[in-house]
Amino acid sequence: MTLTTFLEVLAILVGALSGFAEARNKRMDLVGVFIVAFITAFGGGTLRDILLDKRPLFWVLHQEYAILIAVLSLIATPVLNASHKFLPQRLIVIADALGLGLFSIVGVSTALEAGMPVFIASMMGVITGIFGGVMRDVICNEVPMVLRDGRPYAVCAFAGCWMYLAMQYVGVPSDFSLWVSALSITAMRLVTWAGDIRLG
Amino acid sequence: MTLTTFLEVLAILVGALSGFAEARNKRMDLVGVFIVAFITAFGGGTLRDILLDKRPLFWVLHQEYAILIAVLSLIATPVLNASHKFLPQRLIVIADALGLGLFSIVGVSTALEAGMPVFIASMMGVITGIFGGVMRDVICNEVPMVLRDGRPYAVCAFAGCWMYLAMQYVGVPSDFSLWVSALSITAMRLVTWAGDIRLG
Amino acid sequence: MTLTTFLEVLAILVGALSGFAEARNKRMDLVGVFIVAFITAFGGGTLRDILLDKRPLFWVLHQEYAILIAVLSLIATPVLNASHKFLPQRLIVIADALGLGLFSIVGVSTALEAGMPVFIASMMGVITGIFGGVMRDVICNEVPMVLRDGRPYAVCAFAGCWMYLAMQYVGVPSDFSLWVSALSITAMRLVTWAGDIRLG
């Protein structure tokens, strides 16, 4: 298993985890838990691929990811209830920040390969990073958290995407710029979260 | 008119009917009634075709179905008001269960023809069967019923899709397995509904 | 700048403006303001292009429109707060009616060029005209205004689309029928709004 695959799976698990938590809050049943987790984990990338007209979709190529979420759904509610005091908020935020960074940079690089102009590519990166959570909140009948809590989240993704675009422009090797910018997004998110920095 | 066409039209009418009922509850106007009914009847199949990148869409090939819903929208509200005591809940549940079975199995077989792996194909079946109702509830600003009421609904569709996949795998003729699995979904839904069986 | 481009930009600005207003009402942050404005301005056309499988999308070809909305988002909240008494409701309704007419007729003509049957083409026109607002309201956790307030809005778009289709059928030059039907939608909307006419 390569490092990329490892982080990809981690990002999906984190997405699913936040879906499990939201579905539990809404007192959903087993089916609701699976669907909300699935949408949270894959919604952003799926929307990006639909906008780019790219097929097959990510989770169609890797049906093992969908199966993984289905299996986890079966055990999510009891485990989450039991682990409540062992799963600190801090850990979830860290994992989520890793997912935000990775998904966003995969999104911007996919869009760039598909020939998108740079501003659109940066938007595709942000869409990939945040729209899983937006769809989760819409289906759970909430105003999406990312649109209203004032904490830098999409803004971190946006800044990191432009860091990636700038590094590509000046000729930095693709692998290196991918990792640096993804981790920069994660770092920006964690620093602003820890410092409780808010936008106006 | 073949039996398939007859059941297809029945499934669409049932979808539209549940859209009419929901739109009336939300006190929507004529346009709202049409749009909600349309989304309920065609939303699941449309999402499936977008995910599979399949065109033209089902309702584009059959514009008579869209016209039918438009005409019904004009008379839906007065008729629903008048027929309140003549349209028992039981009848709606039976028709809806028929629609769930038919749409789900059409969905899984379409996905299989499009070369999807089996688990993804079963998910496409469930998506086709339930997402019309999910979209109806999202646009009506409700947490989707199918995600939270604990009654086996998506689970029946999922089980029936796997029955279809298994019968295809062992070489049962396609037409026969289609009908048996679609009716099995309908039967599972009706039995669990009548027995008030709920998932955890 | 041609008249078409001018009206196109005007329609986008009006869509964005109604997104800014809604996002402010929901106390969204900067990111929310941008995303809601973007979805309102481009949601209808994007959904139409996805349903027609048409790429590249409108706003991908014109990334300057997306940049424009991003820049306006930065100044929208303070300007809207300051201009509250200088931006009468009447002006917004007029601009929005212009946008409705233009978007709807562009939608129906795009669908017709893509080979859609006429009733579907008229629906694509209405979708293009109204679904930006529908998505804005869904993401802001409201039942979409256009589905429930009883004022002729989608109905005006629908009537204008059929006027365009009829003029195309009898051989009226395309440019002329486009302008006449777009302005007719605008006029119908304004007259019914001014007269407070409501559907049942």
Automatic annotation (TrEMBL), chains A, B, C:
Topology versus the membrane: Multi-pass membrane protein
Biological source species: Noviherbaspirillum cavernae
Protein name (database record): Trimeric intracellular cation channel family protein
GO cellular component annotations of the record: plasma membrane
PANTHER family: INNER MEMBRANE PROTEIN, UPF0126 INNER MEMBRANE PROTEIN YADS-RELATED
Membrane-traversing stretches: 6-23, 30-51, 57-79, 91-112, 118-139, 151-170
Location of the Glycine transporter domain: 6-76, 94-168
Keyword Cell cycle found: no
Main location: membrane
Localization per Swiss-Prot or TrEMBL: Cell membrane
Similarity section: Belongs to the UPF0126 family.
Keywords: Cell membrane, Membrane, Transmembrane, Transmembrane helix
